[in-house]
Amino acid sequence: MKGSPVASETPETPVTSASGDEGTAGGAGRDAQRPAPRRGLTLVCLALAALLLVSVVVAIGLGPSVIAPAGTARYLWAALSGGEIRASEATTYQVVWEIRAPRVLLAALVGAGLSTMGVAIQAMVRNALADPYVLGVSSGASVGAVGVTVTGGLAGFGIHATSAGAFLGALAASALVYAAAAARTALSPLRLILTGVAMALGFQAVMSVIVYLIPGSEATSTVLYWTMGSFGAASWAALPVVAVAVLLGIAVLSRHSRALDVMALGDETAASLGVSPDRYRRGLLVLISLVTGAMVAVSGAISFVGLVMPHLVRMVVGAVHARVLAVAPLAGAVFMVWVDLVARTLVAPRELPLGVITALVGVPVFVTLMRRRAYMFGGR
Amino acid sequence: MDLTLDGLSVVTDGRSLLRDLSLSVPDGRCTGLVGPNGSGKSTALKCIYRALRPSSGTVRIGERELPRLGMRQSARLVAALTQDGEIDLDFTVEEVVALGRTPHGRGNRPLGAAERELCERAMERLDIAHLARRGVLTLSGGERQRVLVARALVQEPEILVLDEPTNHLDVRHQVELLSLLRGTGLTTLVVLHDLNLAAAACDRLGVLCDGRLVAAGTPRDVLTPELLYDVFGVRATVVSHPLTGDPQVLYSLTPAPPAPPGTAPESAPGTAPDPSPDPSPRPSDPVPNGSDTSCTSTGC
């Protein structure tokens, strides 16, 4: 994951920080903490990439059996390069390569995807409180998964039947929201949000009914799994689909980052700058639904990351989407790798739901940053 | 480049917002659009900067028909200052100004040196260079308005369309902005509420009322007490500016101008004039009352 090409296109602005400091010293106290843009971006991205690499290796090493980072790196290298492993190490190797590696990589991918899709949805519906699940994707996925579990449908997908059901449920929810929100004229952001919220409540009701009517069945645990999120089911087989969806999604968004900037100026202004807000909104809706659906299908709905990570990143690198989209995937990936690590080690052998930890960690951080920085979103 | 509106009509939800508006905005001149609230001024402008598709009629830029151009193409010809000045994210001032180059670049290509200089010049012209690194959401309304004008200028358009650009501006910046607009030499169509500023800034004025163009011409021809009464429902005196000769409109707040003979307010014959006249207009008053300020009255 290299972020976007923007990182390397940083123009030389040797006086950036100097002139910035002068400007703020002149009495504009409120933005004294604004970061000097551009120059720091490459640095931030490199630092995060390095941190991600370290985090992945460390996280793979930690668990019921602790493996030193050097050992983990050796096993990973052996797996990648086809090197040899002594027979006495076979079990440890299995743990590293077959169980922990896919799980940690999945965490990184989903973290990257969620924070990027959060950026996209907030630009699309022009609302600071939106997260990737606002279009009803998560509750739709739960209904799909539970439906498959209860009815035994989609058996053709084998062990991936539940994931397939979740993915289809997510897409169905998005399609429903779109159909209900679309009017003869344009796709109104507010109507999208309201429809999404209403649909989500509807899906939750459906889910409750299923769980209520079929008590004690597998349905209850499936519901819990999908509403709280977990990477427990990670496997190499599940990775490619998510990887492709997330990486493609990030790439596409990065290519259109300036259009996202323009959309934040308002629909009419966007039109006057040659960006059709309605066209972009439809495209974004499809993109967000597909990528988020793919993620929910393998990990369930992990709350909070998609809402808060975009804000945290904007506080550090400013609002321009080229920069935000370069940093958000890396930051989200690092965050999620550590969250997953805590989730599976804190009360081992039991696992905490991811949503619990994202909220416990993220909320205080977010509130603190909000209070410290002169951060604004839509002047509110 | 000339801007021509040809028979523009806009109907939304069965309501006719604009009826058969034809107006030509000559090359390099500043044309003003005035009219009461809801008369269709903003709707007309939206058709020009393509936020709205007219139900019928067309907009031409030079010889080219707007609907035949791509969005980006027309954004290179027409820049707009819109009414929805809300910005969601806390961009810095220079970032917002730089977004004016969007229709000229492909994708995410960073601005070139010439473009950056263009942005800096525009910020200096609008007196916002010292704010370059400030977040736009921390600016005052007037500062923000000037940022948006700078953004429209770096778009390097042929035609500039502005919807109440003097909103939120103090008097000095109103005068400076309108002087600057005249100085750009661009074909300009501007909606203004202040008729005196419109008369001073514009070479021609179009008056909209209830979606129709009811008068067009030089400010001197258009701004007459009769038209002001018919369209805006106010009695006003029009005088010449002592220095420039532009027509200037003077309002009197109490709607009690010298009534024409024979239509004097009802008062019992023979009694002395009421020492404390009732300020509320009576039904038979010849002067416009509250309900008359909309242009749906007899006037147009």
TrEMBL record, chain A:
Keyword set, alphabetical order: Cell membrane, Membrane, Transmembrane, Transmembrane helix, Transport
Residue numbers spanned by region Disordered: 1-35
Chain ranges passing through the membrane: 40-62, 104-121, 133-155, 161-180, 192-214, 234-253, 284-308, 320-339, 351-370
GO MF annotations, alphabetized: transmembrane transporter activity
InterPro entries, A to Z: ABC_BtuC-like (IPR037294), ABC_transptr_permease_BtuC (IPR000522)
Cellular component annotations (GO), alphabetically ordered: plasma membrane
Subcellular location: Cell membrane
Chain intervals with Polar residues compositional bias: 10-19
Biological processes annotated in GO: siderophore-iron import into cell
Highest taxon of the lineage: Bacteria
Membrane protein topology class: Multi-pass membrane protein
Pfam short name (any one): FecCD
Family: Belongs to the binding-protein-dependent transport system permease family. FecCD subfamily.
Protein's name according to its UniProt entry: Sugar ABC transporter substrate-binding protein
Protein's organism: Streptomyces nanshensis
